[in-house]
Amino acid sequence: MAIALALKGSKKLLNAWAFYDWANSVYSLVIASAIFPIFYGALFRAAEIEKVTVFGGEIARAPLISYVTSLAFVFIALIIPLLSGIADYLGNKKVFMQFFCYLGGASCIGLYWFSLENIYIGLVCYFFGLVGFWVSFAINNSYLPDIAFPEQQDRISAKGFSMGYVGSVILLLFNLWMVMNPAFFGIETDVDGIAEIKAMKYSFVTVGIWWILFSQYTFRHLPKGFKKEGERKNIILNGFRELKGVWIQLGGETKLKRYLGAFFVYSMAVQTIMLIATYFGEEEIQWGTDNERTTGLIISILVIQVVAILGATVTAMASKAYGNVKTLIVINVLWVIICIYAYFLITPMDFYIAAGCVGLVMGGIQALSRSTYSKFLPETTDTTSFFSFYDVAEKVGIIFGTFLFGFVAQLEDSMRPAIVFLALFFIIGAVLLTRVNKDKTGMNVLGSDSVES
């Protein structure tokens, strides 16, 4: 029986779109932010080694996972425009979203077999887990102007992030219970490994199942996509041609161009902090025992997620009252303060306070950045190409941000100066945002909606 698709702006369609955040956010929390970084470090500590032989040479654990992460984002930045070109011309972007969702979910399950003996298999699963998450997330972002009217986009974008935080916290609490009490679940230390590490592996499986299972509601209601009119030639390269076309259109869209410049700079720092926060906490904070480290880091991540729910909601309210751009400027300033504070973190309590502050601004800046970009878009049905440009800019920023962070940390032999270095990007981002609503004379141009006010 055919399913009647909900109309643009309808509650059913908006909720179905936002529900994908509930489905896939468990990856970014449980694997990218919480359990996997702890598991990865515990694996090396249990083996009492710091380096592993890969591709014929020895490499330390931190650079290894950093290089794989950077390589994954290079791949993501290249494949998103390829897919956007194909999706726009065939009108089937939901198929691609489903493929990468299932690829990511299956890769999470595959992390169960991550071990130092099977390092290549583990790294491949880690690589494609990243790819599956970010590419499917990018395609879901491109649906926002298709499913919501401009006045709905701030609210539904914030709702999506909030749902993601709630869902991921629920699963993380279950995984935390499993890791801290493995015997309750019949998981014991034996010849196959340490109980706590085995429990972490089971948590990767739960992420994959959760992601694939709950995404079905989204796929049930999202439209297939919008087929681009006109002759279809060189479909494979059309995504890059369309990125070029978007770049050309930016010449006539001053506000959008200025906003993208600011977004590229501050997003570089935001995404880098999200990727390295747990590693920073593990290395720089004086936790005491290994158990205290594991518990403390997971509690910190939970604090971030819970506070982020409030942050996303408050930010949406602030943007409605004061405008998107002004709100983003304030959030960037808050990020600067957090980066400076992070330099002085020593005790677990210091880290918990920092985690709460990060949560308050993390959810807000992500949700508001996505909806602000959507509002600045010109009238077009070619939303995939414009969001492809947005996502490529974000991924290139991650490549630069993680590289520069690693370079400064290596140069100073500490992650603390690198964190302060990231504050520079938030300062530049805030300054660039002040130019978004200015005309050629340097005066602010007041508009009628929340973006321009």
Q: What is the CATH architecture term? A: Up-down Bundle
Shape: globular
How large is the count of helical segments? 14
Mean pLDDT: 81
Strand order of the largest sheet: 1-2
Kindly give the count of domains.
1
Would you identify the regions where 5 or more consecutive residues have pLDDT less than 50?
A: 441-450
User: Count the strands?
Assistant: 2
Secondary-structure-derived class? mainly alpha
Binned, the helix content reads over 70%
Beta-strand share of residues: under 5%
Q: CATH topology, which one?
A: Growth Hormone, Chain: A
- Write the element-wise H/E pattern from the N-terminal end onward: HEEHHHHHHHHHHHHH
CATH class: Mainly Alpha
Q: Cα-atom Rg, whole angstroms?
A: 22 Å
Largest sheet: 2 strands, antiparallel
Q: Please state the oligomeric state of the protein chains shown.
A: single chain
CATH superfamily: MFS general substrate transporter like domains
Could you give the distance between the termini?
A: 47 Å
Describe the structure.
With 453 residues, the protein is an all-alpha fold. The protein has a two-stranded antiparallel sheet. The chain contains 14 helices and 2 strands. β1 and β2 (57-60) form a beta hairpin. The termini are far apart.
